[in-house]
């Protein structure tokens, strides 16, 4: 099979488990993926931790002194739980094992499911590593935002939506380091790696199936393109 048929999707946990598990989203997502599988595409899907990760991390913080590694492992297990949910949705199509280490060779399957890797990383970071490993140049980052904004639109009324950004412009908007449970449009470490690899990242709102479909068909889409 051709390497170019891979599409890599960093599926933010905030899309899978915004509060409770969004089964309606998962049904629509599964239908979309299956339609593109039928057209010959292959997918690498990386599950985020969402509110499950944050609930556990917050509980640990409330219960006493915490160490970054413990918070990260709680997050990693949450991402793997979500990854296993995807694996059960795609039982017929996905490689049977969740890929825990994105530096290993990519198995031959129609769908590869991955999740958190190691403390200090993020699922965006895993997604960029897997894309590099698979030779894929395009990555879709599904999250709960319609666009990347020039500032936080919840707190800054002058925030502008960004439809297209260079890596330099995008990286300038991100915090320069990563903390467990951080909410940012993309992990800054992963962004620097993706920039160095010359990748293209599309940030699209998870519920916007039509826009994901448009991007996969190389059409104009609602969201932010970073290249
Ligand atoms: P993510 O922050 O990647 O998932 O992992 P998320 O919840 O989907 O993020 P959003 O919704 O897109 O913003 C959750 C937590 O798991 C730990 C980190 O603590 C991270 O904040 N984690 C995840 C790791 O330590 N290593 C990994 O490789 C992945």
Secondary structure elements and their pairing?
Blueprint: E1 6-11, H1 13-16, H2 23-38, E2 42-47, H3 50-63, H4 68-89, E3 111-114, H5 123-134, E4 138-143, E5 148-149, E6 161-162, E7 164-165, H6 167-173, H7 188-196, E8 200-205, H8 209-216, E9 224-226
Parallel strand pairs: 1-2, 1-4, 2-3, 4-8, 7-9
Antiparallel strand pairs: 5-6, 8-9
Helix pairs in contact: 2-8, 3-4, 5-7, 6-7
Would you give an account of this structure?
With 227 residues, this protein is an alpha/beta fold. The protein has 8 helices and 9 strands. It has helices at residues 13-16, 23-38, 50-63, 68-89, 123-134, 167-173, 188-196, 209-216; strands at residues 6-11, 42-47, 111-114, 138-143, 148-149, 161-162, 164-165, 200-205, 224-226. Strands 3-2-1-4-8-9-7 form a 7-stranded mixed β-sheet, sandwiched between helices. It has a two-stranded antiparallel ribbon with strand order 5-6. The mean pLDDT is 93. The structure holds uridine 5'-triphosphate. Uridine 5'-triphosphate (UTP) is lined by residues 12-14, 48-50, 53, 71-72, 75-76, 79, 116-119, 121-123, 126, 143, 180-183.
